[in-house]
Design goal:
A mainly alpha, B mainly alpha, C mainly alpha, B: mainly alpha, two-stranded antiparallel ribbon, 34 helices, disordered C terminus, C: mainly alpha, globular, transmembrane helix (chain C), cell membrane (chain C), transmembrane (chain C), MnhB (chain C)
Chain lengths: 115, 834, 143
C-alpha cells in the first residue's frame, strides 16, 4: 500500500504548493489546508502502514497481541491535526483582517504595505 | 633553553600549590557584583556612592600590591578554575609582571576616576547608570589583563568594547555622541572579529588555548605556515583597539564621552588593551622581520600622525587625545624594536604615560568644569584662580614633554636610547624626532595657554576645584614626580618585572634619571628647543597647517564613512533583491531550494527501488482515487464553494485512511476538526472575494512545474524512507511499558499525556496562542478608535483606554461596517489614510 | 443562518448538546484505555457548543456556557501545568506521572493520576480555544 500512498501524498503536496503559489489569498488558505493534510499523510505513510491493528492493548493484558501500528507517529499527527486547525483559523482571520484594511485579495499587491 | 624557562619549570611547583585558590577570579567578579549593586547603593547613599565604590579598587590595589615582591623575583601566580573543560576554555587567571603592572594601574587609577566621576557628574540623573557601566568596564579590563585562556581573554576584550561604547555614548541624547560611540564600537569590534580569528589560529597552531601552556611549550610558532595570517589577524585586533594608524580616528571622536571616561579609557585602560595584547604575545610571536616591520612602521607613523594632528587642535581634550595616539604609536614602535632596552623603555613609557595622561585628562576636565570651555584659545591667566590645578598641569605636562626630574623624562630617555641603539631605518628616527618636537609644543600649549598670560573671561566664573576632583591629579602627578626622583626603586619593583615578562627573560638593567651625555640626551635637548619654538609660533604654525585640511579630510575617517555608506547601500540592494515583499517569490525560492538540496542528497546517497509487490484492496484504491480527485478539483475549480466541498472530501478521505490503517484516534480527530473547519470557513472565507483569475497561463505553467516537482520529490522521499531504519524505533519501549508502567491501554493517549506530555503541553500552548491571536484580531479593532488610525494594518494595540473595560467584551467595540460592502470601506479608508 | 433556525434544528440542538457533552466527558475519561482523550473530547464538546451557536446565536451560547470561553483556556493550561508539579515532591523529573488509586466503597477502584489531570487540562484548553475563536467570529457576524 505504501507506494500508492506515496503517490497520493505527492499529489496532495503538488496541489498544496500549486495553490499556495496563486495570487488569491483565498487560494492560499486552501493551499494551507491541503498542505497540513499532506504533511500528516507524509508522517503517517513513512512510519509504515498496518491494517486492522490499532495501538491498543486488550483489557487485562500487559502487552498488545502481535504486531500493532506504530503509536508514536499517530500521537504526533493527532496534535498536528488540532494545531493545524488553530493555525488555519489564525491564518484565515489574519487574511480577512488584511483584506479589510488593504482591500485587495492579491498577494502581489500586499507587498508594499509596510508603511 | 634560556635561564628564564628553567625558572618557569621551577615555579610550576608553586603554581600547582596555589592551583586551588581562586581569589583572582573573585576579585574580578567582585567588581561586577558591586556594579550590579550600584542602583541600590545610590538609593541609600546618593552622592557618597562613588566614594564607597572606590573602596573596592583601592582595596584591590593594595591586594595586588602584596604580590609585588613575589612577581618581582620572577614568579608567575596562577589561579585555576575550569569553565568549559570540554572546549579547553577555562577561567584561569595568571599574574606575571605585565599583568600585575596593568592590574595595579587599572585599580589605582580607577580608584581616583571613581571619586572624580562622583563629583564631576554630581546630581546627574544618570549617575547610577554611569557608575554601573564604569565598574563593569573596570571589571572587564581587569579580567582581560589577568586571563590566561585565550577565549576568556577575548570575552573580556569584547566586554571592554561594549562597555566603552556605553561609556562614550553616555550622553546618548546628542546625535554626534551616538555617532562617535558607534564609530568606536564598530572599529574595535571589527578588529575584535579579526582578533578572534587570530586567537583561534594561535590555539590551532600551538595546540592550546592557555597562555601558560603556549609559553611553556617549546614550539616555534614563528615558522609555522599560518604565522603571517595569524599575526596579521591578531595585529588587526590590537591596532584597532589601540588606535594605530589608519584606525586612529575613533579615539579623538571618543572624546565625546564625559571627561572621567576619557581619563580612564585613554590613560591606563581601553586603548592600552591592544598594547597589552601585543606585549603579551611578543615572546611567542615577536622577533621576526614581519613583526618588526609592521610594528615599527605602523608605530612610528601613528606616533607622527598623533603629534601632527595634536598641534592643529585647540580643544584641550582633542590635544590630549591626539597625544595619546602618539603615545600608543610609541609603545607599538618599542614593541616592534624588540630589544632588551626597548622592553625596558616600553614598560617605563607605559607607566609614565598612564600617570601623566590620566592626570592631564582629569585636569582638562576640571578646567572645562570650572570655566565652561576647554578651547585653549579662549583660556588664559587661570593660575591665580586655580593654583593647584595649574601646578599639577604644569608638572604633568613636563612629564609629557619629557623634562627632568619627572618619570616621563626617564621613559623618554630610555625610548630614545633604545631607538638610537637599534638598527632602524633613518626615516623612522626622523619621524620620532619630529613627533618629540611637536609633543614638547603640545605639552607647552596645555600647560601654559590656559594658566598664564592675561586672564580671559570664560562662560563660567572660574575658581579652584573641590577636593574630589583634585585628588586624582594631585596623587598621579606626585607619583610621576616621586617615581622620577626614585627611578631605581620604581624600576626594580614595578617596571622591570613587566619588561621581563615581555622580554621573557630577567632584565639586566636599571632605571635612572641620568644616563650621561649620549645621543638620546642630545635629541631631547634639540626637540625641547625646537618644541618651544613651535609653541612660540603656534598661531602661524596652525594657520600654515590648516592648508593641509583638505588632505586630512580625505584621511582614513573618510574611508570609514564611505565603508559605512557602502554597507547601507549593499543592504538596500540585497533587501530589494531578496526581500522584495512578494511572498510568492519567497515561497518559490524556499521550495525550489528544498527540492534541489533534498533531491540531490536523495539521488546521491540512496538507492530507490519500487516495491510493487504489496497487497492492495480495491476499496483502498477507491479512497486513494477519491482523495487525489478531490485535491485536484480543489485546485482547478473556479468556485469557492466547490473548493471548500473538495477540501471536505480530502479531509474525510484522509480520515478514512486513518480508519483503514489502524489509527482510530486520528480518524475521530480528523473528522471532528474537518467539521469545525467547515464552520470556520463558512464564517470567514465567504466574506472574502471569490477566486480571481489573475495569473497568466505561463505563470500557471511555471507554478505547476514547481508543484509537480515537489510532489515527485515527496513521493520519492517516502519511497526511500519506508525502507530505511536508521535507529531502532523508540515506540517499542512505549508499547512495552504502556500498560505496566503508565497504566494505559490506549498507547497513543499514553504518549500524549505521559511519555511526551511536555510536547503536548507546548502544543496546547500553541493552540491557546492561536485562539488568543484570533480573538485579538477580531475584537481589537484599532481603526475604530478615534484618531488612532496609525495603528491600522499593524497588530500593535493602541492604549487601553480607547476601549471599553475588559469585562465588557460581550459587546465588543467592533467596526459596524467591518463586513459591509468593500466599496463603502474603501471610501472610509481613503478618508482615513489621506 | 445566524437567525433562529428551523424547529427541527432547535429541538435537535436542545437535545443533542447535553448528550454530546456527556459523551465528551465519557471520551475524556476513557481516553487512557480506549480511543478518546483530551483532544478528541475537547473537539466533541466544541462541536456541541458550535451546534448550539449556529442554532441560537452567540449571546445565547454564552449564557449556556456561563463562563467566557477564554477562561477555559486559562484554566486548562493551569491544570495542565499544575499536573507537572507533584513529581517534584518525589524528586522525579518534571511531568513524571503520579498515581493515587482510590478504593470506592462498592469495591471498584478509581485511579486518580496526573495524566488524567493533564488530559482534563488539554480538554479544557481545546474546548476554550475553539470556542473563543468561533464565538468571536460569530459575534462579528451578527453585528
Amino acid at each position: 500500500m505504501e507506494p500508492i500512498m506515496a503517490i497520493v501524498t505527492g499529489c496532495l503536496y503538488a496541489s498544496a504548493i500549486y495553490m499556495m503559489l496563486r495570487r488569491s489569498i483565498v487560494k492560499l488558505v486552501i493551499g494551507l489546508m491541503l498542505l497540513s493534510n499532506a504533511a500528516n499523510l507524509l508522517i503517517f505513510t513513512s512510519a509504515g502502514m498496518t491494517r486492522g491493528a490499532p495501538p491498543l492493548i486488550p483489557l487485562g493484558a500487559m502487552q498488545p497481541d502481535g504486531i500493532i501500528a506504530d503509536p508514536l507517529p499517530q500521537a504526533l499527527i493527532l496534535t498536528a491535526i488540532v494545531i493545524a486547525f488553530g493555525v488555519l483559523a489564525f491564518a484565515v482571520v489574519l487574511i480577512h483582517r488584511a483584506y479589510n484594511i488593504i482591500h485587495t485579495d492579491n498577494l502581489d499587491e500586499m507587498k508594499d504595505t509596510d508603511t | 633553553m634560556s635561564p628564564y624557562s628553567e625558572c618557569c619549570e621551577g615555579y610550576a611547583l608553586i603554581n600547582q600549590l596555589e592551583g586551588s585558590e581562586e581569589t583572582m577570579q573573585l576579585a574580578v567578579l567582585l567588581i561586577f557584583i558591586l556594579a550590579a549593586c550600584v542602583p541600590w547603593l545610590y538609593g541609600k547613599h546618593k552622592d557618597r556612592t562613588s566614594k564607597l565604590l572606590a573602596l573596592l579598587p583601592a582595596g584591590l590595589t593594595l591586594w595586588f600590591a602584596q604580590f609585588i615582591p613575589e612577581i618581582a623575583s620572577g614568579n608567575t601566580i596562577i589561579h585555576e578554575h575550569a569553565w568549559i573543560p570540554g572546549l579547553d576554555i577555562s577561567f584561569t587567571m595568571m599574574l606575571d609582571g605585565l599583568s600585575l603592572m596593568f592590574a595595579l594601574l587599572i585599580c589605582f587609577i580607577g580608584t581616583f576616576i571613581l571619586i572624580y566621576a562622583g563629583n564631576y557628574l554630581k546630581g546627574h540623573p544618570s549617575l547610577p547608570r554611569f557608575l554601573v557601566i564604569l565598574m563593569s568596564f573596570m571589571g572587564s579590563m581587569l579580567g582581560l589583563v589577568l586571563s590566561d585562556n585565550l577565549i576568556t581573554l577575548f570575552v573580556f576584550w569584547e566586554l571592554t568594547s561594549i562597555t566603552s561604547y556605553l561609556l562614550i555614548g553616555f550622553n546618548h541624547h546628542q546625535a554626534d555622541v551616538r555617532k562617535a560611540a558607534l564609530q568606536g564600537l564598530i572599529v574595535t569590534v571589527a578588529g575584535g572579529l579579526a582578533l578572534l580569528a587570530g586567537l583561534v589560529m594561535l590555539a590551532y597552531v600551538s595546540g592550546s588555548y592557555s597562555l601558560q601552556e603556549i609559553f611553556n611549550s617549546n614550539q616555534v610558532l614563528t615558522e609555522h605556515p599560518l604565522y603571517a595570517g595569524m599575526l596579521i589577524c591578531l595585529l588587526l585586533g590590537a591596532f584597532t583597539k589601540s588606535a594605530q594608524f589608519p584606525f586612529h580616528f575613533w579615539l579623538p571622536n571618543a572624546m565625546a564621552a564625559p571627561t572621567p571616561v576619557s581619563a580612564y579609557l585613554h590613560s591606563a585602560t581601553m586603548v592600552k588593551a591592544g598594547i597589552y595584547l601585543m606585549a603579551r604575545l611578543q615572546p611567542e610571536l615577536g622577533g621576526t622581520a614581519l613583526w618588526m616591520t609592521l610594528l615599527t612602521s605602523f608605530g612610528a607613523f601613528t606616533m607622527f600622525t598623533g603629534a601632527f594632528l595634536a598641534i592643529r587642535s585647540t580643544d584641550l581634550k582633542k590635544l590630549l587625545a591626539y597625544s595619546t595616539v602618539m603615545a600608543l604609536g610609541t609603545l607599538t614602535l618599542l614593541l616592534g624594536i624588540g630589544t632588551e632596552l626597548a622592553m625596558m623603555a616600553f614598560a617605563a613609557y607605559l607607566v609614565g604615560h598612564s600617570l601623566y595622561k590620566g592626570a592631564l585628562f582629569m585636569l582638562a576636565g576640571i578646567v572645562d568644569h570650572e570655566t565652561g570651555t576647554r578651547d585653549v584659545t579662549q583660556l588664559g591667566g587661570l593660575r591665580y584662580l586655580m593654583p593647584i590645578t595649574a601646578i599639577c598641569t604644569l608638572v604633568a605636562a613636563f612629564s609629557l614633554a619629557g623634562l627632568p626630574p619627572l618619570f616621563g623624562f626617564v621613559a623618554k630617555e630610555l625610548m630614545l636610547d633604545a631607538l638610537v641603539q637599534s638598527s632602524l631605518s633613518k626615516w623612522i628616527l626622523l619621524l620620532v624626532i619630529a613627533s618629540s618636537v611637536l609633543v614638547v609644543a603640545v605639552a607647552a600649549i596645555i600647560a601654559i595657554k590656559p594658566f598664564f598670560g592675561t586672564l580671559q573671561s570664560t562662560p563660567k566664573k572660574a575658581h579652584e576645584a573641590p577636593l574630589e576632583l583634585l585628588a586624582g591629579p594631585v596623587v598621579l602627578t606626585s607619583l610621576s614626580l616621586l617615581m622620577g626622583l626614585m627611578p631605581g626603586l620604581a624600576g626594580q619593583w614595578f617596571v622591570l618585572p613587566a619588561a621581563a615578562s615581555v622580554w621573557s627573560q630577567p632584565i639586566d638593567g636599571y632605571l635612572s634619571l641620568w644616563h650621561g651625555f649620549n645621543w638620546a640626551l642630545l635629541i631631547s635637548f634639540i626637540s625641547l628647543g625646537l618644541g618651544i619654538l613651535v609653541f612660540k609660533r603656534w598661531e602661524s604654525v596652525r594657520s600654515i597647517l590648516s592648508l593641509l585640511n583638505p588632505l586630512i579630510q580625505r584621511g582614513p575617517e573618510a574611508g570609514y564613512f564611505r565603508f559605512m555608506d557602502g554597507i547601507v547601500y549593499i543592504a538596500q540592494w540585497q533587501t530589494s533583491l531578496l526581500q522584495n515583499g512578494s511572498m510568492r517569490s519567497y515561497l518559490r525560492t524556499i521550495i525550489l531550494t528544498f527540492v534541489l538540496l533534498t533531491g540531490y542528497t536523495l539521488t546521491q546517497r540512496y538507492q530507490l527501488h519500487w516495491n510493487w509487490d504489496v497487497s492492495v484492496y480495491l476499496h483502498e484504491i477507491i479512497v486513494a482515487l477519491l482523495l487525489v480527485t478531490a485535491a485536484v478539483t480543489a485546485c482547478i475549480t473556479h468556485s469557492r464553494l466547490g473548493a471548500v466541498a473538495a477540501m471536505g472530501v480530502v479531509g474525510y478521505a484522509v480520515a478514512l485512511f486513518f480508519t483503514l490503517f489502524s489509527a482510530p484516534d486520528l480518524a475521530i480527530t480528523q473528522i471532528l476538526v474537518e467539521t469545525l473547519t467547515v464552520i470556520l470557513l463558512v464564517l470567514v472565507l465567504f466574506r472574502l472575494p471569490g477566486f480571481g483569475n489573475i495569473s497568466t497561463t505561463a505563470e500557471r505553467g511555471r507554478d505547476a512545474a514547481v508543484a509537480i516537482l515537489t510532489g515527485i520529490l515527496i513521493t520519492l522521499l517516502i519511497m526511500v524512507t519506508i525502507d530505511i531504519q536508521l535507529f531502532p524505533p523508540i515506540s517499542d519501549y512505549m508499547i512495552e511499558n504502556s500498560q505496566p508502567l503508565a497504566y494505559g491501554r490506549n498507547i497513543v493517549n499514553v504518549i500524549l499525556v505521559d511519555y511526551r506530555a511536555l510536547d503536548t503541553l507546548g502544543e496546547i500552548f500553541v493552540l491557546a496562542l492561536a485562539a488568543m491571536g484570533v480573538y485579538a484580531m477580531i475584537k481589537f479593532r484599532p481603526d475604530t478608535a478615534p484618531g488612532a488610525n496609525h495603528y491600522a494594518g499593524t497588530l500593535i494595540l493602541p492604549p487601553k483606554n480607547t476601549f471599553t473595560s475588559e469585562n465588557d467584551d460581550v459587546t465588543p467595540l467592533t467596526d459596524p461596517d467591518q463586513f459591509s460592502s468593500p466599496s463603502a470601506q474603501l471610501n472610509k479608508h481613503k478618508q482615513e489614510d489621506v | 443562518m445566524m437567525k433562529p433556525g428551523t424547529l427541527i434544528l432547535h429541538v435537535a440542538a436542545r437535545f443533542l448538546v447535553p448528550l454530546q457533552l456527556v459523551f465528551s466527558v465519557f471520551l475524556l475519561l476513557r481516553g487512557h484505555n480506549e480511543p478518546g482523550g483530551g483532544f478528541i473530547a475537547g473537539l466533541v464538546a466544541s462541536g456541541a457548543f458550535a451546534l448550539y451557536l449556529f442554532t441560537f446565536g452567540a449571546a445565547v451560547t454564552r449564557d449556556l456556557m456561563r463562563v467566557d470561553p477564554r477562561n477555559f483556556i486559562g484554566v486548562g493550561l493551569l491544570i495542565a501545568m499544575l499536573s507537572a508539579f507533584p513529581a517534584w515532591f518525589h524528586g522525579q523529573a518534571f511531568l513524571t506521572a503520579q498515581w493515587w488509586p482510590i478504593l470506592l466503597p462498592g469495591g471498584t477502584e478509581i485511579k486518580l493520576s496526573t495524566p488524567l489531570f493533564f488530559d482534563i487540562g488539554v480538554y479544557l484548553t481545546v474546548l476554550g480555544s475553539v470556542m473563543t475563536m468561533l464565538v468571536a467570529l460569530t459575534e462579528t457576524e451578527e453585528r
